[in-house]
Amino acid sequence: MNTKDIREMSEAEIEKKLRDSRDAQVNLRLRKQTGQVEHPHEFTNLRREIARLETILREKKLAASEA
After folding, report:
1. What is the pLDDT of residues 36-47, one digit of tens each?
2. Residues of the domain holding 18
3. Helices and strands per DSSP (H, E), number in the chain
4. Rounded to two decimals, what is the model's pTM?
5. What are the residues whose beta carbons fall under 8 Å from the beta carbon of 52, sequence distance 6 or more?
6. Backbone angles phi, psi at 22, to 5 degrees
7. Which is the most buried residue in 28, 41, 45, 64, by most CB within 10 A?
């Protein structure tokens, strides 16, 4: 998911996607412990997606509070 798609989402949708991404990250960690991770680059991708979501969500909240 790129930033353009995220910016078009509402705050509630971003929060839901953020929650889902964090759940996926936890599941990926559990799979890593049992040795079932086939693509280790998924950790990096999830971490970056979470950071992207948090950044855009914060921007939206700041813009709403200024208006």
Report:
1. 999 999 999 999
2. 3-66
3. 3, 0
4. 0.91
5. 1, 3, 6
6. -65, -40
7. 28
